[in-house]
Amino acid sequence: MGRLVVVSNRVPAAQGRLQSAGGLAVALRAALKEGSCLWFGWSGRQVAGHDGYDPEVSLDEVGNVTYATIDLTHAEYDGFYQKYSNGILWPLCHYRAGLMNYDRKDQKIYQDVNALFARKLLPLLQPGDRIWIHDYHLFPLGQALRDLGVTAPIGFFLHIPFPPWSLMRALPHADGLLRTMQAYDVIGVQTEDDARNMNDGFSIVGVEAKARVFPIGIDPENFAKQAEEGLTHPDVKKLKESLSGKPFIIGVDRLDYSKGLLARFKGYETFLARYPEHRGKVDYLQVAPVSRGNVPEYRALRRDLDEAAGRINGTYGTYDWTPIRYLTHPVPRALLASFYRLADVALVTPLRDGMNLVAKEYVAAQDKADPGVLILSHFAGAAPEMESALMVNPHDADEIADALHKALTMPAGERRARWDLLEPDVWRVTAVTWAYNFITALSEARPA
Ligand code: ADP
Ligand code: F6P
């Protein structure tokens, strides 16, 4: 069997091998445990650059994976990552066309960086390689590789939602973008909705390509183990002591408008207003590490969340109780797993999400004798697989408030019954099965 060549913008090794807050790196790292693998992407560094600047590829071997990364210039980082990927494609794919800041010159930089990735990857390729490209930063990379003569099997997986064509066409040259996807032998998306939307788009613009569903998962065994083992960690003990036996609600998300954090805070505020019996008797920890902090919409969201948390704590807090504990920095994954285990309720209420691994991690981390309750948005990609959670429309603060009350007063029998229905799928659809199914489809579509 030849090598697997993974290409993504974000590469975990580029972050000094700290945990990455982001589903792509977390799931892929869990999936690539065996076989020889090259993982190519951005180093996470920006450099000054100049006309004709040509980045060097840095190689770093960790176990079975060789990481190959390149730096981007400030201009590339700005146009490719901040503006086109995260200021245009991200909002559009999350059904928020109104937040899109389109500028034709960023599209050119996006294309150029994709061509740069192709040029830098080409000399690293070997006969027998299968290439697997990830996410919206790199839609046209397959075509750029084909233009350089690459004949290897190339697959593409989109980790985020794909909207209906009626929305997608708000992107100038969206048809051209879809056309480049004919370069792929296999195209994978997270949900049936995403596949339907993308395939409608393909047929409207006359592209012969077909998206298929490959739902992503976690490494449940490892996560459950971490959750249990971490209980003896001094920081986890400290958190437990600080709760003084009060029930505990947790939220864990990148600080991103797609995660519905502001609506969630409003839901919690409504809960405290409408169910005063819980005031002072419950704790809520929201971990929301800053993400894409230089994109204007993300900066604005952070200000809004700071204000909302301050308002809620100021209004409902007392000298010995803080309604929201709100952190904007990451927490080590081993601790996070045990935090989930301690939590009686998880609030996972995105306005739109590709899959949402946090929902699956929370289920995997529970103690089966006494599991907590997952409150889940209808608009998470995980929703169709996890309907035994307490499902909510995150736009309705009263629905979140009612769900919180219901979760906190739910009898143990119902908690167990719901968890018993959620758990098998978390173990059945994992990061490993996701990668295996995709790679098998790729090998069948075009043998290397
Ligand atoms: P996204 O890919 O949009 O960030 P997901 O929920 O699919 O959303 O994946 C997020 C991943 O990042 C999860 O594995 C989660 O545990 C991890 N993560 C999120 N927030 C933090 C944090 N504060 N500290 C550490 N890991 C985090
Ligand atoms: O999982 C979706 C995703 O957009 C990944 O592509 C990305 O790596 C992750 O979220 C975190 O975002 P970023 O790489 O911009 O920090």
Automatic annotation (TrEMBL):
Per its UniProt record, what Gene3D superfamilies does this chain match? Answer: Glycogen Phosphorylase B
- InterPro entries cross-referenced by the UniProt entry: Glyco_trans_20 (IPR001830)
Family of the protein in this entry: Belongs to the glycosyltransferase 20 family.
Q: Protein name, please? A: Trehalose-6-phosphate synthase
Q: Organism, per UniProt?
A: Acetobacter farinalis
